[in-house]
């Protein structure tokens, strides 16, 4: 990527680092298209990775280190957006997520508009089936026929009222005319609420600048877990906590757990909820991906924790962003692509297509990690919010600029093999290198619930 192109990507994403081909601190090799999409998703993810590396390098100097150039590449960025599909267990890759689920697909409605349904977890699938008057195991034809009886926006609203997941395909212009699109499109890719409170943490290990940093990871699926995984690559003690009966996607669990510990906590159990809150009070960073009402109900929202003395970085991740009428709605990667116009840009308004990558999910997680590192660098206990739609708006600002038919492809990416409780995992690396820093995961992805609810000493 040329210095001029990097500057354009950085400016569109409001990144702090700047590229210099004459020995500057950031260097990104290559350019898109790597994957078959007109959007520069490899370049954008690589820029986000370099932002993380640059912030980690600055933290290292606070511990007496002298790190050099931060490097990544467009192909490493592209790989980062599909890493779950490239992860292997005992030599076998995971099948495409929900590939045979008729409740995770797009259908044409009575008004000829397309809608995407996402019943990726059993409760969501059952809810959609009930709403459409179908069986849980209905066929594609049956689900399509049922959607064909609805006006698209009426179905979208009915899905939202039932706390289910689905959205109508829009163009970028249509999204920009709606209140939610207007609310999110004008935001930074990560919203930072500056705090006057000073963070009580200092880096002490120049090679692993996040060593000793306690990160409570209250997320699942991809964006939030990718954020915690990124922090773990620089030495943080990342403890991911989920409920024992909460559904997950196996490929995502394996892919996003590197370098972490994992514990269970049932928030409906008062004793376990209390223990989790005690753990949160001892964290330096909290990353959470619950809907707003859930964290408030259990006293795990920023305001409640800060009222009791929490003085760390509090980062939230969602589909639709921190404000606007869709704030409480559920969403996945496909939903962000659907509403933002990315899917229409990938295909056409008459035949929309999804990008061949989880470009908003992974990139959101990386961007959020970068904002956390910048807050640590400033020693500020900031509140942060990233979302899939904020990242989608960034990709739209960069614009569909390439011919997807010119995609170079990923070739045969290098995987390192590590033993884990799942078997022999073949995984990609962190995607960014920083001279004089150890950027790596020191442990393999563990099973859910395999650790205790405690911080490392």
Q: What value does the average pLDDT take?
A: 94
For the report, how would you describe the main beta sheet?
A: 7 strands, mixed
Work out the strand percent: 15-25%
State the low-pLDDT regions, or none.
none
Q: What share of residues is helical?
A: 25-40%
CATH C-level category of the domain at 104-184 and 333-346: Alpha Beta
CATH level-4 homologous superfamily of the domain at 104-184 and 333-346: formyl-coa transferase, domain 3
Evaluate the radius of gyration: 21 Å
CATH fold assignment of the domain at 104-184 and 333-346: formyl-coa transferase, domain 3
Strand order of the largest sheet: 8-14-13-12-9-10-11
What is the 3D form? globular
> Alpha-carbon distance between the termini?
43 Å
Structural class: alpha/beta
β-strand number: 17
The appropriate CATH architecture of the domain at 104-184 and 333-346 is 2-Layer Sandwich
Work out the helix count.
Answer: 18
Description of the molecule:
The strands form four sheets. This protein has a seven-stranded mixed β-sheet with strand order 8-14-13-12-9-10-11. A four-stranded antiparallel β-sheet has the order 4-3-16-15. It contains 18 helices and 17 strands. Helix 2 crosses helix 3 (74-80) and helix 2 runs parallel beside helix 17 (359-378). The protein is 37% helix and 16% strand. The chain has a domain at 104-184 and 333-346: formyl-coa transferase, domain 3 (2-Layer Sandwich). The protein is globular. The N and C termini lie far apart (43 Å). The chain is an alpha/beta fold and 457 residues long.
